[in-house]
Design goal:
mainly alpha, 3 helices
Length: about 160
């Protein structure tokens, strides 16, 4: 950067020129006559200034990122607790048991319904058979003196 009054080079960020002592402020369009003498148009000077500002900002951001990475690496690694993993596994186990029980409940319900249908069909078949056949008379039990009908069969055995 050059002083717009005397044309001597000045350092970035200084408030006054070291040679002429005049205040140095930000110039729009570059350093006036001296940049035009070097063949730089105001648009080119603005683009160069913007590129330099962008480069400086990128360097600053990169430095901050590097510092954050170093701090992150220096932090102690957190130990993973087994409690969340154990809770997750127990949850999965409970879910699997629920699905298993529901499946078997459906299977058992289906078997009970099939058994109920068979019993109903057999009851209907027996009722139909009894309706078509005359009732059978049963013989009265043998009477004996001891009150047991089968006592006469055992007399000779003891």
């Amino acid at each position: 950067m050059y002083c717009k009054y005397c044309g001597k080079p000045i350092d970035e960020g200084t408030m006054r020129c070291r040679i002429c002592g005049r205040p140095v402020g930000p110039l729009e369009g570059g350093n006036g006559f001296w940049d035009l003498a070097e063949g730089k148009s105001p648009a080119a000077q603005t683009a160069e200034a913007q590129a330099a500002a962008n480069d400086a900002a990128m360097k600053k951001l990169q430095d901050e990122l590097d510092q954050l990475r170093k701090r992150t690496e220096e932090l102690p690694a957190q130990k993973r607790s087994a409690l969340p993993i154990l809770a997750g596994l127990l949850g999965l186990l409970a879910l699997a048991m629920g699905v298993f029980a529901l499946f078997h409940l459906q299977v058992i319900t289906g078997r009970l319904q099939a058994l109920d249908r068979r019993v109903t069909e057999q009851s209907a078949a027996i009722a139909a058979q009894q309706a078509t056949e005359p009732p059978q008379e049963t013989a009265p039990p043998e009477e004996s003196q001891g009150g047991f009908a089968a006592e006469s069969k055992w007399k000779g055995l003891y």
